[in-house]
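Schema walk-through. Below, the input block comes first and the output block second. Nothing else is stored per chain. Lengths vary across the set, and this one has 164 residues.
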Amino acid sequence: GRLDIGLLRLPVLRQREGVRVLPLYSERLLLAVPPGHALARQVPAQGVDLAQLKDQPFISLPHPQRGGLSYLSAELCMRAGFFPKAARVVSRKTTQLQLIQAGFGIALLPESMQDIAPANLHFLPLADPDCHSTIALACRQAPTPLVEQFARHFTQGFAHSRGD
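--- output ---
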């Protein structure tokens, strides 16, 4: 009850009563690896198969109470037959880019993270077509008129930009 509106990455593990979640758009996930990583030298034409990552250290692991990108990454890996192995250092958000660059591990990251990544980081395509992350808008079920107007304008803007 402290926030009026927010942006998040799906999945949401615990849906709170009185909160609605409106998916906005999805973006492709890519495998981020450090400079000189073996996978960056031999990228298959169809992309990297998630099963190849079984023994790689992941710098992002799911928190038992949260969803989002780390949870989605673990879910995708489990579908490929393994749970991500933890790196020596585990991080969230933009710090991950520096940890990958320093060689601590790898991560599945949204394509848009390339825009803020260090130049020598490698982003590799994934073979699995289900490797995408959805951004959603969350707001109260009964928002104030200003929040309702903002949410409507915001979601319509994304629908219009996608051609819906």
